[in-house]
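TA notes, week 10

Several of you asked for a full example with nothing omitted. So below is the full record: structure tokens for the whole chain, then the designed sequence directly under it. When grading your own attempts, check the secondary structure regions first.
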């Protein structure tokens, strides 16, 4: 169950990062309220996952999901730069996430 909490927490991190962008500098109150709710839920689920996962693994996977997911949202929804080097770096982060998952007993 800890891994499910962690994955959902990471996806919520992507949501709140996108919410910060969509909030246009804190000028859209409803978007910012949803962003704040996603932040709270993300951290709460991260905390729940850490009941049975090591700090180093849980935090690295959480931030990794947030990084990779935010880059994908930027590429797909916001038309951000998709250079080969940038994609290679994201792939390296994703490989690290998978490696951390595989290293757990």
């Amino acid at each position: 169950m800890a891994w499910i909490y962690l994955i959902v927490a990471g996806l919520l991190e992507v949501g709140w990062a996108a919410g910060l962008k969509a909030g246009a500098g804190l000028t859209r109150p409803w978007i910012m309220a949803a962003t704040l709710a996603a932040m709270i839920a993300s951290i709460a689920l991260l905390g729940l996952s850490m009941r049975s996962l090591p700090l180093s693994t849980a935090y690295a996977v959480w931030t990794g999901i947030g990084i990779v997911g935010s880059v994908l949202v930027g590429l797909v929804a916001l038309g951000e730069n998709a250079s080969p080097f940038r994609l290679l770096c994201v792939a390296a982060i994703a490989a690290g996430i998978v490696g951390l998952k595989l290293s757990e007993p």
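The chain has one domain: 2-103. Use that as a sanity check on your answer.
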